[in-house]
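Need the bound structure for nicotinamide-adenine-dinucleotide, inputs here:
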Amino acid sequence: MTTENIRTYDVIVIGAGPVGENVADRTSAAGLSTVIVESELVGGECSYWACEPSKALLRPALLRADAVHVPGLGPAVGGPLDTEAVLAHRDRMSADWKDDGQVEWIKSAGIELLRGHGRLAGEREVSVQTPAGDTVRLRARHAVAVCTGSRAARPPLPGIENLRPWTSREATSARKPPRRLAVVGAGVVGVEMATAWQALGSRVTLLAREAGLLPRMEPFAGELVTERLREAGADVRFNVSVVAAERMRDGEVRITLSDGGELTADEILFATGRAPRSEDIGLDTVGLAPGDWIATDDSLAVTAVPGNWLYAVGDVNRRALFTHQGKYQARIAGAVITARARGEELDTGRWAPHSSTADTEAVPGVVFTDPEVASVGLTVREAERTGRAVEVVDYEIGHLAGALQYRPDYRGKARVLIDRDRQVVVGATFAGPGVAELLYSATVAITAEVPLERLWHAVPAFPTISEVWLRLLETRRDS
Ligand SMILES: Cc1cc2nc3c(=O)[nH]c(=O)nc-3n(C[C@H](O)[C@H](O)[C@H](O)COP(=O)(O)OP(=O)(O)OC[C@H]3O[C@@H](n4cnc5c(N)ncnc54)[C@H](O)[C@@H]3O)c2cc1C
Ligand SMILES: NC(=O)c1ccc[n+]([C@@H]2O[C@H](COP(=O)([O-])OP(=O)(O)OC[C@H]3O[C@@H](n4cnc5c(N)ncnc54)[C@H](O)[C@@H]3O)[C@@H](O)[C@H]2O)c1
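Answer from helper R.:
Posting the output first, comments after.
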């Protein structure tokens, strides 16, 4: 590598998804010259093939599910969805898969954008293969942040390359509902996409290899979602996986199941988890294994690479695969990079400005299904696994006046976990219509470590679903 051809910046960010954009924003705002490298669309998976399109597909389905049960409203909203209108809205929410708006923002933030495929090329160096086939060499004075995200993981099924299955990308960008859709995987992508396409007119078969849906969450969440999906007409099956699948000449997919059954579908979606986009980013040049998730410490510096110049932020570090949590990490990584560039001491204590403590203590997530599921912090299973002594308090949300106002047939459940020694909330799960907006209250309770005694003074308005907080406290007091 000859120095003449090398462009030098303070910070190089590889990957302009929501996380890379936020790292670059923070370092640029701090006065560090910053270049961001992007091989596809600025905005990443979230804007075009994940959060934005999926939520646009789901919103009418969830709203209708609530509205048909509100007296006086049912007949007006009970008909089928206008699929074309929903898909057109989805297209707009995905910016028609064009990134002009985000590129404008990058420019306005003083960040330089370099289009192409970025690869680490040893310490503080990155080589970028541009769409024109040129190689541009970059050097960082202070930091390189790898923010290359994740892609759908495919199961090791024989012949999968000829199957042309849907991944999360096709499931969020398809132009029409398949008549029959088989969904493999009971995680968040599987249940959200099953909900959306069933509502848009497909006949969905959801295949879970576990004994329930949403296996990483409190079991009651998956049970409520299963009930509603079945009521909506979906065929939800447990303890079953795909052993073979073949795309036939007529386009149909023939699926052989582990229980000996067979299934025919027009499309098959593998919603079977994520893999890091790290196989071709030069990890070997810094002593890391290509294709692996990149482990970091709480300051987001890559643990296995000395010198505190290499950071991995967002999905690629596997700490918490959510846009909001990756952006939180990005704000912290930006502050860490800036502090180190200025020669300042880091403050990496628990909940300190240079530590992404929330990644291990309070990751909030909403599953946008009917009903919604919102959770943050520990589940009972995680508390048991990590040996945490907790009290578990449950409450049926449907008993609340606010819930009955929301939807008279309301069914839902709340669970909080209370740390026995510290008497603070360490986990919360809500499953029920309209619970998504409750989640921030639980996140604040956990991160601020609000003493239970003080929570009694946080008065929820009547008649709202947030009265669940009062009922949970009363249930614990009276038990
Ligand atoms: C269907 C679906 C729905 C989801 N819904 C939600 C939701 O509602 N809420 C939520 O919080 N999260 C949701 N997520 C998760 C969310 O999409 C991710 O957590 C988020 O996109 C991660 O952001 P990121 O910037 O780390 O990675 P990405 O968004 O994957 O962005 C990485 C970027 O890096 C680029 N890149 C990769 N390699 C290179 C390279 N070598 N050189 C240059 N550029 C490169 C990519 O092109 C991409 O633009 C969803 C995920 C899926 C699959
Ligand atoms: N609303 C949201 O915030 C949202 C929405 C979608 C995705 N996400 C994020 O994306 C991440 C990935 O979601 P996901 O649903 O793809 O993954 P996941 O890990 O949550 O679930 C994967 C599912 O596929 C199953 N599976 C894996 N391999 C299989 C195989 N060979 N055969 C059959 N089943 C198999 C697993 O048992 C599990 O049920 C989530 O962890 C979440 O953080 C968030």
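Comments: The mean pLDDT is 97. The two ends are 70 Å apart (CA to CA).
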